[in-house]
Amino acid sequence: MSTVITNIGQLVTFDPAEPDRPIRTDAALVIEDGLVAWVGDAASAPATDELIDADGAAVIPGFVDSHSHLVFAGDRVAEFEARMTGRPYTAGGIRTTVAATRAASDDELRERLARLVAQSRAQGTTTLEIKSGYGLSLVDEERTLRLAREVTDETTFLGAHVVPAEFADVREAYVDLVCGDMLAACAPHARWVDVFIDSGAFTVDEARRILTAGRDAGLGLRVHAGQLDADGGVALAVELDAASVDHCTHLTDVDVDALAASARGGAGTVATLLPLVEYSTKQPYPDARRLLDAGVAVALASDCNPGSNFSSSMPLAVALAVRELGMTPLDALAAASRGGARALRRTDVGHLGVGARADVVILDAPDYRYLAYRPGVPLVRTVIAAGTALAHTERAH
To answer: What does the alpha-carbon distance between residue 172 and residue 246 come to, in Å, rounded to a whole number?
Structure first.
């Protein structure tokens, strides 16, 4: 079965084969067997079995949200209200969610997860990474990753989110558990391992040990760093060739230089920026312009979680990146699609070049810039994943 999308007002491809031509006009796109089979001038489009009329709308790649925490119970709305009145954000609130998540059944967690994934998909996200980190026991980390794996292949073991209360006085024993039995139980359900490096979480030395153990177990590496301070985590991420270092709110010049050198050297370590977190925590926004001008590979992601940001809206992340991070609309859209794919070390998603997975979003707008121009407006008209309309029960790969 082949399908042509035609009458496209503006087609954003980010085709790696045409890096100097990210946008086409008067274009059409053909989907066959779940992949992009042809892109070109509408007048030259080949015959297909089906036709989708975009009615002059902009067509973009599906968003690649490379950082989220969607398996949890409860909420922290009172904590959010307190921040809005001046209380600073700290990592300690994670333990509140841990208690609620441990008390929830698998079915309760699965039902909440399904609703959150459906919300994410409805906003144009077709590839979604989900972390554990709200179990912080062997049993609960394993089950939350197992549930996440039911809805996405991009799952991340984050047993090193914070030290749970029962290990507060014996944190080394918890690191031993994360590197040992917990990792062994979780690795079959995970593609990645992650560590939160922060004054309220884990040190660089602890992170090195955990990441190395994860790598030895066959997992790729991701790092939370630079959210509350320039903490040394960026240097560690680059040294260990982590796919992504996320937050990057506070960076030294040395950090920026290291990330830029990494980007020039191959797959590299992507700086994943999470502007919805700064919106929700009232912290300073990261300076994306500084990173882009230095040659750093940049991604945007939601970091949807119950504490520091309870929004999965990639369109809103794009709008904030343009308004607050110094990005152009094209920079921001690229970071939210192609950049996210690079942060997951994927070449099959995040663009609409020939051979890519046919993850296509048709906007209710004639121009991709409307994503920043009309923030908060539901501009996603149609979501197509792997060539078919995305039902809420399908996996977001």
So the answer is: 25
Distance CA 322, CA 326 (A): 6
Residue-wise pLDDT for 158-210, tens only, equals 999 999 999 999 999 999 999 999 999 999 999 999 999 998 899 999 999 99
The whole model's pTM is what? 0.96
Helix, strand, coil share (%) of the chain residues, nearest 5? 40, 20, 40
* E strand intervals along the chain: 2-6, 10-12, 23-24, 27-32, 35-41, 50-53, 58-61, 63-65, 125-131, 154-160, 192-196, 220-225, 244-247, 270-273, 298-300, 360-363, 380-385, 388-389
Q: Alpha helices of 87-216 — where are they, by DSSP H?
A: 94-103, 106-122, 138-149, 171-177, 183-186, 204-216
Phi, psi of 363 (to 5 degrees): -85, 155
User: What is the tens place of the pLDDT at every residue in 341-382?
Assistant: 999 999 999 999 999 999 999 999 999 999 999 999 999 999
Spatial CB neighbours of 202, under 8 Å, sequence gap ≥ 6: 160, 162, 163, 175, 195, 196, 210
**Could you give the maximum distance between any two Cα atoms of the chain, in Å?**
70
State the number of CA atoms in the 13 A half-sphere of 324 facing the CB.
Answer: 21
CB 233 within 8 A of CB 245: yes
